[in-house]
Structure formats: structure tokens, C-alpha cells
Amino acid sequence: MKQRRLGKSNVGAIGFGTMSFGGIFGATDNATSLACLDAAVDAGISHFDTADIYGMGVSEQIIGTWGRQSIHLATKCGILNGPPRTVRNDEAYIRQCLEGSLRRLKREHVDLYYIHRRQPDVPIEELAGTMGRLIAEGKIGGYGLSEIAPATLRRAHAEYPVTAVQNEYSLWTRLPELGLLQTCRDLGVAFVAFSPLARGMFGRAPLKRDFREGIDFRDTNPRFVEPNLSANLAAIARFRDLCAARGWTVAGAALAWVLAQGDHIIPIPGTRTADHLGDWQVPELTAADMAEIQRILPVGFAHGDRYGDHQLAYVERYC
Questions:
Q1: How do residues 199-249 score in pLDDT, each as one tens digit?
Q2: Contact 204, 249 (CB under 8 A)
Q3: How many CB atoms lie within 10 A of CB 67?
Q4: DSSP state of 222
Q5: Burial classification of residue 226, based on how many CB atoms lie within 10 Å of its CB (0-12 exposed, 13-18 middle, 19 or more buried)
Q6: Which GO terms describe its molecular function (predicted)?
Q7: What is the C-alpha to C-alpha distance for residues 220 and 311, in angstroms, rounded to an integer?
Q8: Residue 3: in which H helix or E strand, if any?
Q9: Can you list the residues of the chain whose pLDDT is less than 70?
Q10: For position 308, what pLDDT does the model report?
């Protein structure tokens, strides 16, 4: 697999997101998750991403059980699940969360530590100072911010250099193109794209509305609620036809498109099973391919917002 820069390290151009190990999209088990992690390494993936809130520690525990020390590992803190869901960015809480994550991960150090959501009343410079102290103490290799605006990134980076920003980005979520991708590039910050396969919409088969009520994030997400879901499936069906005609997997083509948007972008798709990793082989997209994808799925094609009002808390909006 080709390499991309993430802080001081070179990592595989495609990373691995482990949110699904916590059961948010469906049932899983440790043996299946461990086999999936092994298969990811065999496929050339070296950067793995988790968080303390994924399954309330379950995802981190699985990675700790796995025990691979040679991987590049990121985790996150800052979201309190509630109810109601809220956030904390004070230093005492961040240190408490980090110690818990390191214990579950069975590590003394994590390569990258994100603030999962920003607490508005904690100055970003104060937060950057906290993360800088953790770096100086050898607890973390670098720090990142998630779901933030370009202005927040510039302020944090001026206080203490940011390693990575993690925001949603895919063929159907294009907001980062309105300043965040450019700011990351200009500052030398990696942009880690979560949900690059649109929460399963660019998976092997068209999604069916059989989400687990009250558990699956998509059950109340506007893009997965009718009539938006049917409209989105119809639009993406044309992309599926293009992939079939070109001999691409749908997931591979969607990842290739994300990768083509900048050398500083690292997508982190996720899966619960090793079987889907074979779909992540990325084709070389020509200029003609990119133009055809743009024609089929123009910017802004998605029906519905990427989050509902109940899911937007502490997500920075800047356009």
C-alpha cells in the first residue's frame, strides 16, 4: 500500500476505523474483530483509529487484547455519553480519560490523541497547551481535533502544532472543501477522513432500512430516513453502475476518489468483518473517471443533512 504522512510517521494511505467493533452498526464479537484486525495488517493498513466512547471502551479493549505494538494508533476523548450527551476538554478530565484508554489499550503511549469534540467555553489555546504537555511527557506522540472549523485549527496550531484533523468527508459529505482541507494542507496537518464510505452507502450492496432502533446511528439520521434514503440510493445506483462497468468495487472507487483530493488526506473506513477488506482495493482514477464521477454524483447531491439536530451538538459549523 502507498504511504502518506501522519505527524512524524509514514502510514498506509488507507487507515482503519474501529467504531463498529463497539456494536453501533450491529452485533460483533471479539474473535471476529481480532480476525478483522489481522486481515487489515495483512492488507497493508498500519494506522488504526478508535475512541473511548466506541462501545464505551469495548473497541479499545479489543485492540488491547490484540496486542500489536507496531501499529500507528489513535484514540480520542472528550464526549460524555450522558444523557444528555455533553463534552469536557479540561486538563484533569483529559488526563483521566487518557489513563483509562492506555489501560484498555495496554500501552504506555499512544501515537495520536484526539479531542473528539470541542468544548466551546474552554479556549482552544488552553486545550492545545494541555495536549502539548502530554506530548512533552511522552504520553502521546501528537494531538488532533475532530469536527472543527478552519479558524479553530489555525488558533490551536499557533499555540501548539496540530498533527491531524478528523472530520467527515466522502463523495456525499463535501463540507471540508470549503476551507478545512485547504487549511490543513497549508499548515502541514494531516486530514483524516472518517466515514469515507458514507456509513455503508458505498458498501458492497445497497443498504436496506433495517437499522436497529435506538442503537444504530443511522436510524434517525436524515440521510437514512425516507424519502431521503430512497433518493440517495437512486443517485448512488448510477455510481454503482459506473463501478460495475469499469470493474471497480464500489468501496474501492469511493476511497480512490477521497485519496485523489489531496496527498494529505487519509481515509479511515471501518468494517466489522475481514471479508469486506477485499473491497478496499483502490483503482487508479483518470481525469476522465473523475469527471464522470462528478457528473453522476455532483457536489451537494445528497438528500438530507449529514446529522439531525439531535446529533449536531458540539459539531463546529462554519459555512
A1: 999 999 998 887 767 667 788 889 999 999 999 999 999 999 999 999 999
A2: yes
A3: 10
A4: G
A5: exposed
A6: oxidoreductase activity
A7: 9
A8: strand 3-6
A9: 23, 25-26, 212, 214-215
A10: 86
Predicted confidence (pLDDT) per residue in 247-261, tens digit: 999 999 999 999 999
Closest to 89 (Cα-Cα) out of 143, 136, 41, 49: 143
Domains of the chain by start residue, with CATH:
3-311 (3.20.20.100)
Catalytic residue among 54, 143, 169, 307: 54
The full DSSP string for 66-78 is: H---SSEEEEEE-
Q: CA-CA distance, 231 to 299, in Å (whole number)?
A: 15
Specify the residue for cell string 460483533: 28
Residue 54 is a catalytic residue: yes
Dump the DSSP string for 14-45.
Answer: S-EE-GGGGTSSS---HHHHHHHHHHHHHTT-
Per-residue model confidence (pLDDT) at position 85: 82
283 DSSP assignment: P
